[in-house]
Fold:
Amino acid sequence: MKDINQQIEKVVTDFNKATATQDIQALSKLLHRDYRVSANRFKGSLETVIISRDAYLDMMETSKIGGTVYEISLLRINQTNHTASVDLMLTCSDASDMHKYLFLVQGENDNWQIIGDLPLVIE
Structure:
């Protein structure tokens, strides 16, 4: 069995690839049913916007989000029992960079899924 940090890292890198290719089927497996994006003061807004899993997948499917290939740098993985947080940077020469915090949970079948996404666009 893989080391837990390797399992978590694979989920995060698979998520990055699936958003780049707008792969709804892969994202559906990687995202927990209660997945939420919490975009706080995103791109200059003064508000916090919460995006549900279904809304996120709909936006991905209609190309409102996703489709950008980012280079990923995992800065830190914190894991305790069946929960984890990942601090990462996404960089791209064609788009704004992003600093993200992803939150993961390990289900009954021991698979890790992303339950929360807190992005910060770096202009």
